[in-house]
Amino acid sequence: MEYKITGNMIYIIGKDEFCPLHILECGQIFRFGQVDGNYFVLVGEHRAEIFEEKNGYKIVCDDPDFFVNYFDLKTSYAKIKGQLKKTPIINEAIKEGNGLRILMTPFFETAISFIISANNNMKRIKLILNRLCEKLGKDMGSYYTFPTKEYLLKTDEKFWTEIGAGYRSKYLPKAIGQLANFNESIFCEMTTEEVRKKLISFSGIGPKVADCIMLFSLSRFDSFPVDVWMEKVFIKHFGSAELTRVQMSKQLVKKFGNLSGYAQQYLFNLRQKLAY
DNA sequence: AGCCAGGAAGAAT
DNA sequence: ATTCTTCATGGC
Hints:
The protein is of the alpha+beta class. The chain has 15 helices and six strands. The protein has a six-stranded antiparallel sheet. A hairpin with a 2-residue loop joins strand 5 and strand 6. The longest helix is centred in the middle third of the chain and has 15 residues, at 122-136. It is globular. The relative contact order is 0.12. The protein binds a DNA duplex (13 and 12 nucleotides) through helix 5, helix 6, helix 11 and helix 12.
């Protein structure tokens, strides 16, 4: 992936491995939007805006080094896509999501976001997270940051109910307490199965949310989150409907190995077409 | 109006 | 160790 940094800008050279539509609209993050037809993305305390150019994209942001890591620009997708194209259904999905990339979202923000995502829909997840940041984030003028642990630790069940988190409101304060004095760097020495087990021990985190956290914030690409959509895709394109979602996920990880997460994202990006 | 959404917790079996 | 029930809420 070719890029160069100039001042507060990152220039993406070429459009084959980077497309804001594919990257942002595939459900790995929820704090993004458009102004004047250009995508912007919020992560932690940062903001970036993406402008399309003739032969690439211009990312205007507050911290280019942070966003080089966030967009994982040092990873080339050529091999990944080449390998995955051998599976016909994913080859089809890659055609429709060629510029997709898996982001490197901070652990704590990802965990909170995906606890909220359980049995929920994209629009309401975005709504709840926007309300959270407006209430507890730092006002940066044109946007609000994601709240710090310090502020999140002060929240109670009532707070989350008020911003519309529904029945997840009772898990969140407990999960925040558990996560706040937990250092995710210990995951480095653990297998993916051990990390998953640890994550599931936290309130509000089950198998699917754990898989999302591992994939989107811990670079565990040997995980394949199976939600209601991927269950439909699995039944139609991969196997029987008699399996549980956890069993489907296991089968898919066995098939795709360290490319599982990428495979999942290409399929999820095309979920409406592939599920029915 | 009823059904659904990037599921998990707790109870029952 | 697995299956069943319940859980808020905004959008379509």
